[in-house]
Design brief:
single chain, 58 residues, 2 helices, elongated
Amino acid sequence: MAVNAKKVAVYVVVVFALYVIITDPAKAADYVQIGFQGISDAAQALGDFATWVADGGK
C-alpha cells in the first residue's frame, strides 16, 4: 500500500510541476530560483557550522 501511495505522490508532484511550467514559465523559474537559493543557504549554514566545530566551538 505504501508503494502505491508513493507512486501517486510522485505522479501528483510531476503533474503539478508540468502544469506550472506550461501555464506560467516565469513563475516556474522563480520556484527553481527559490529552491536553489534554499539549497545554497543550507550549504552555507553547514559550512559555517563545520568551521565553528573545527575552531573548537568558539
